[in-house]
UniProtKB/TrEMBL annotation:
It is found in: Secreted. Gene3D superfamilies: Cystine-knot cytokines. One of its GO terms (cellular component) is extracellular space. The lineage of its organism: Eukaryota, Metazoa, Ecdysozoa, Arthropoda, Hexapoda. Residues 1-23 form the signal peptide. It comes from Cuerna arida. This is Bursicon.
């Protein structure tokens, strides 16, 4: 009798959890979603002793599907999928910064290399490196014009 009660309780809990996951998924599907995409941004390049320089750049922004649900084959376990909007390929640009505080013998202009995403897609979430570019301001640039002239595919 005890085994039957235990199995019945497990089945009821699994049904409740499964209903919750399905409900959350259905509700999220009805909301407008911001798909993962390349977005134009303004990034401020900084280097010690140099004047900060805002440049047009790109960032990956938007949402990706993630879920947690009861396993179909093992109802006592949970299955999870965490997807994040990340870069797929990168572009590189060389930018000159004016450095008025350069020491004697050093150049007043310093060339720095910066990178930006070429394309964006939903991929399994991973840790973000500290050196990753963080956009400071979303810009209203189009795909043509100063952005594409600034970056080269690498």
């Amino acid at each position: 009798m005890m085994g039957f009660v235990h199995t019945f309780v497990d089945s009821v809990l699994a049904s409740i959890l499964l209903t919750y996951v399905v409900t959350v998924t259905c509700n999220d599907a009805s909301k407008p979603s911001d798909e993962c995409q390349v977005t134009p941004v303004i990034h401020v390049l900084q280097y010690p002793g140099c004047v900060p320089k805002p440049i047009p750049s790109f960032a990956c922004t938007g949402r990706c599907s993630s879920y947690l649900q009861v396993s179909g084959s093992k109802i006592w376990q949970m299955e999870r999928s965490c997807m994040c909007c990340q870069e797929s390929g990168e572009r590189e640009a060389s930018v000159s910064l004016f450095c008025p505080k350069a020491k004697a013998g050093e150049r007043k202009f310093r060339k720095v290399i910066t990178k930006a995403p070429l394309e964006c897609m939903c991929r399994p979430c991973t840790g973000v490196e500290e050196s990753a570019v963080v956009p400071q301001e979303i810009a209203g640039y189009t795909d043509e014009g100063p952005l594409n002239a600034h970056f080269q595919k690498s």
